[in-house]
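README: folding subset

This subset contains proteins for which both the sequence and a predicted structure token string are available. Records are stored as plain text. Below is the entry for Helicase ATP-binding domain-containing protein (463 residues), shown exactly as it appears on disk.
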Amino acid sequence: PSTAVRHMAARCVGVMSKIATVETIHIFLEKVLPWLGAIDDSTKQEGAIEALGAIMEQLDVGIIPYIVLLVVPVLGRMSDQTDSVRFMATQCFATLIRLMPLEAGIPDPPNMSEDLIKIKAKERHFLEQLLDGKKLENYKIPVPIKAELRKYQQEGVNWLAFLNKYKLHGILCDDMGLGKTLQSICILAGDHYLRAQEYARTKVADSIPLPSLVVCPPTLTGHWVDEVGKFCSKEFLNPLHYTGPPTERARLQQHVKRHNLIVASYDVVRNDIDFFRNIKFNYCILDEGHVIKNGKTKLSKAIKQLAANYRIILSGTPIQNNVLELWSLFDFLMPGFLGTERQFAARYGKPILASRDARSSSREQEAGVLAMEALHRQVLPFLLRRMKEDVLQDLPPKIIQDYYCILSSLQVQLYEDFAKSRAKCDVDETVSAASLTEETEKPKLKATGHVFQVGNASAYFAT
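--- output ---
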């Protein structure tokens, strides 16, 4: 019954906002919106966020003059422990962010109080930073890091710190080799230190020190542990390499509280999800996070059970095949932000895929462009991507070292057989005739693939 009453009350507030917009919004901002911060009373939170959703539904673009006043309170609930509050807050934020670019040109509504105008001017700084990464504040890492950050790496840390400040989540998708691991270590160490300092000073429950979790492919777990030790003292980040057979992992579970960072592989987290889902993490970082692109796999479902204040995906290739993969990534970061999977496919996936068909009509192509632009507006504030060519001036000169190796007798025999084969001729012809156009990439790949299909190789190994 209380749910039905709350729902009807929210609808009434929505209708009132349509009839008497300024008066209703003023009362809502003053009396109801603060309920979103009542973390000990989910009933108040649900009432406030549902009322906001009803207002936004009724006003549509009429909500634009008030966006600045709503965004930050809604953001704070996108990481709420109550599923219903978190989901509704994420949906509200998804609508607000689509309208944000229009806010700058809209005048303040008549009769807006001076207090609200001052708050609006203050909060607009957040919008500017969200929509323009160049306006981010410089983040001074509060702990010693044994590395000198390059300019673009400092900008990456600034972006991660901005997400942290407003309890947001995102995808760092720099090219391979640009230091995604180092940037992540910087924000991990800095936030763990500041959180511990805040708790020592205030004893507030929201700042209780929590461990963080890095999930990565098994080949990278040792690398992560080594990199943390290389760049940061154990005083600030003390990693636990959570690996081994089940008996060893059961033993390691007894030592988790001694560490503030756990590094584990995807398969290990999936197998031990009953253990991991009962831990509240500060950060959950998915390295090579595109592995959860298919939301229907057991791995993706397990990873999405993890609870964390901040969720970050690291990937040089966040979208590998089609735009539909993006939904699963954001379903981990901010569930509900892109709607349900079916809604996302209808709103973005189908128009974009249809427009890429060679037989698509001009109308389908236009619909695809509009869908892509709308998707960009919604997700780009939560993606940071730098290509190597974008930061060449910050990179050191390339070091090339040639090492000459003596072939074994088997390798010599394989090489000579390949040199005499038709495959060798195919490779030579394709490479000599190839240009750098996209059309020639597939034949070149096919030709070079012959190298790995050396005929009769199994016979050599058998003997």
